[in-house]
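Case 293 in the screening queue. Each case pairs one protein sequence with one candidate compound; here the compound is flavin-adenine dinucleotide. For every case the pipeline is the same: read the inputs, emit a complex structure as tokens, and attach any notable structural observations.

Predict complex for case 293.
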Amino acid sequence: MKPAPFAYVRPATLDDAVAELAATDGDGKVLAGGQSLVPVLAMRLGRPGTLVDINAVAGLDGLERRDGALRIGATVRQRHVERSSAAAAVPLLGLALPFVGHRELRSRGTVCGSLAHADPGAELPAVALCLGAALEVTGPRGRRTVRAADFFQGAMTTAVGPDEILTAVQFPAAGPGEGFGFAELARRHGDFALAGVVTRVRSRDGAVAEAVLSGFGVSDRPVTRDVTELVRAAAGEADVETALRPGTEELAREMVDTAGDAHGSQGYRRRLFAVLAARELARAHRRATESPS
Ligand SMILES: Cc1cc2nc3c(=O)[nH]c(=O)nc-3n(C[C@H](O)[C@H](O)[C@H](O)COP(=O)(O)OP(=O)(O)OC[C@H]3O[C@@H](n4cnc5c(N)ncnc54)[C@H](O)[C@@H]3O)c2cc1C
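Case 293 output:
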């Protein structure tokens, strides 16, 4: 199919982009990498009257370390981040990005586009949640910063208003004593996952100071839990992963509420989530213990 007719604008400044979007009165869409939006248009699942292409907007292409965070502008491609040495500051991006679709898609798709699109099966929203990322949103009323915990509000629904642009995201850089884990299961590499987990453990003086478990593909939005007590209790055991399993099975019943489909029942997804969560929390714990605090 072909898209329904739409108007197309390609502003050169952020002020103009915001003004163009506001002028559409809710009938406009931001075009970033187009890897999700263009298929939506082609299948006529969406019929925006105007596309505001932000790719020529000056100042949105920055990728830089700033104030203990990696700041990624709205037009920075996923593949650029994946290949950048600056991204080493956020190890979870290096673990997760190779699983975001295929390399060709990542060459066009943007990090901010993935966050703004908020597909419940997407990897990067869960990474943002696990790390407590800060998202910069700009609109006619100025710029505001939204915490990842408040950003994802449902399937394909975020705190970005119809007249606003996600201009950048800040991922906190890894600190001393931090370890991370990531895993997903998809039927084929590049497909959206049946279930996936993102983990972060921080240790101080050999003890677990903080542990976080986030999941994707398991609900209508990425989900997250503070699991410090669970990991602390398992940390002293010879086999940390096995010791974590009863706890992750309980968490799976709570965190995995997506219904079953042709690819896997709800019960299967819960078992999968529990196994991946225990494995990746144990891995993050081991890495945190090995990392100098
Ligand atoms: C075959 C296929 C497989 C895929 N597999 C995966 C996968 O496994 N995991 C995964 O995470 N993704 C996957 N994707 C999606 C891909 O990663 C997209 O790149 C990403 O979801 C959207 O990024 P984009 O820059 O292309 O955004 P676009 O397609 O340009 O936009 C997507 C949506 O976000 C909005 N938007 C984009 N940028 C902004 C902004 N700065 N401010 C406000 N709104 C904005 C747009 O208006 C639109 O509604 C897949 C896509 C395809 C076609």
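Case 293 observations:
- The chain has three domains: 7-53, 63-172, 178-290.
- The chain has eleven helices and 14 strands.
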